[in-house]
Amino acid sequence: MPHTALPNELRLSIGRLARRLRAEKADRSISDSQLSALWRLREAADCTMGALSGIEGVTAPSMHRTVNALVDAGYVTRYSSPDDGRKVLLRLTDAGERVLDETSRRRDEWFTGRLRELDADELAIVTAAAPVIKKLANS
């Protein structure tokens, strides 16, 4: 493959892989943006709607719609801050934790199955490339 084709080939392949992994989720009715908000709430428990909007890089109205759907599904709860009763905080419910755990399990299972399909040489290449892919993803 010519060097100039490499960025396009990798971008398309990584995009397809990411879409395929995102399809493995515990609740098919939940959107990718809703699932992303759940992951963020797991990392930044007890945060405000504004903070979650900032972390996710979306507008406040968009985050309100996302959170409302998650509250309606029973995955997130709102409560008043103990320090300032006017401040509303968000927290995952047990059901929200379970949907994240099951989504992780399904994604790991799917990806492990694909890795098992590789021969020893292919698996060695993927293993060697993993730190480089991580570096690209984090830059």
Task: Note down, in words, how this protein is organized.
By secondary structure, this protein is mainly alpha-helical. It is built from six helices and three strands; from the N terminus they run ααβααββαα. A three-stranded antiparallel sheet has the order 1-3-2. The chain is elongated. The model has no long low-confidence stretch (mean pLDDT 93).
Structural class: mainly alpha
Distance between the termini: 25 Å
Helix % is: 55-70%
Mean pLDDT across every amino acid position: 93
What share of the residues does DSSP label as strand, in percent?
A: 5-15%
**Count of DSSP helices?**
6
Structural shape: elongated
Q: SSE order in H/E notation?
A: HHEHHEEHH
The poorly predicted ranges are: none
DSSP E strands, number: 3
The quaternary organization reads as: single chain
Largest sheet: 3 strands, antiparallel
Q: How big is the Rg?
A: 19 Å
Strand order of the largest sheet: 1-3-2
Fold blueprint:
Elements: H1 6-23, H2 32-43, E1 47-48, H3 49-56, H4 60-73, E2 76-80, E3 88-92, H5 94-116, H6 120-138
Antiparallel strand pairs: 1-3, 2-3
Helix pairs in contact: 2-4, 3-4
Question: Which key features would you list for this structure?
Answer:
single chain; 139 residues; mainly alpha; three-stranded antiparallel sheet; 6 helices; elongated
In brief, what are we looking at here?
This protein is mostly helical and 139 residues long. Helices cover 68% and strands 9% of the residues. It has six helices and three strands, in the order ααβααββαα.
